[in-house]
Amino acid sequence: MMRKALVSLAFLLFAAVLSAPPAAAQVGVAGGFSQGRTHLVLTAGSGSAFGEDYLVLGAGATYYLLDGLGAGLHYEYWSGGDPDLSKLTASLQYVFHQVRPVKPYVGGFYRRTNVDNLPDLDSVGARGGVYFAAGRNAHFGVGVVYESYLDCSKSTYRSCDDTYAEVSLTFAF
């Protein structure tokens, strides 16, 4: 069901891009999402897993290979609960930089999660949402993420799929 919702969201965002003519000043200009730009992100928040609450700290970067197309790497450490978790995520995302005033995005990722005293977990996922300008080189993002754990055992984990909101603040250099 969630996969259908994410596919529908991606389709709607793609349709919005096709139907929205770019502003004359933005033709050929991707701004903060231009080829060669790097976005840095710091993560600080809370999360829940294994019936425990965690403090989540992380850092990452996305490099724009082409206008709007970014490849990223992000690391998170989850502490304060038992067991400790760490996550390493490689991602690709496309930002529809031609659209104004918000910038829709869609993407996919592969994640490796290390769980103390349990086998590592691999997962794949998709995300979609919008960025809002928060300054000349800063963007505030809100979206939804669907993640599916590969080789997941429901006898060990409560669920092998997860859907959650994401909020981000990125800075382009």
Task: Characterize the structure shown.
The chain has 173 residues and is mainly beta. The chain has one domain: Porin (Beta Barrel), CATH 2.40.160. The protein has one helix and eight strands; from the N terminus they run αββββββββ. The protein has an eight-stranded antiparallel β-barrel. The model is unreliable at 1-28 (pLDDT under 50).
Structural class: mainly beta
Q: What's the architecture, going by CATH?
A: Beta Barrel
Overall, the morphology is elongated
What is the CATH topology descriptor? Porin
| Sheet with most strands | 8 strands, antiparallel, barrel
The overall pLDDT, averaged over residues, is 84
Number of helices: 1
Order of helices and strands: HEEEEEEEE
**Radius of gyration, rounded?**
17 Å
* N-to-C span: 38 Å
Q: Approximately how much beta-strand content do the residues carry?
A: over 45%
Helix percent band = 10-25%
CATH class, anyone? Mainly Beta
In order across it, which strands form the biggest sheet?
A: 1-2-3-4-5-6-7-8
What oligomeric state best describes the polypeptide chains here? Answer: single chain
Number of structural units classed as domains:
1
How many DSSP-defined strands? Answer: 8
Give a short synopsis of this structure.
The protein is mainly β and 173 residues long.
State the main characteristics.
173 residues; mainly beta; Porin; 8-stranded antiparallel barrel; 1 helix
Topology (elements, then pairings):
Blueprint: H1 2-19, E1 38-49, E2 52-66, E3 69-79, E4 85-95, E5 103-115, E6 121-135, E7 138-150, E8 161-172
Antiparallel strand pairs: 1-2, 1-8, 2-3, 3-4, 4-5, 5-6, 6-7, 7-8
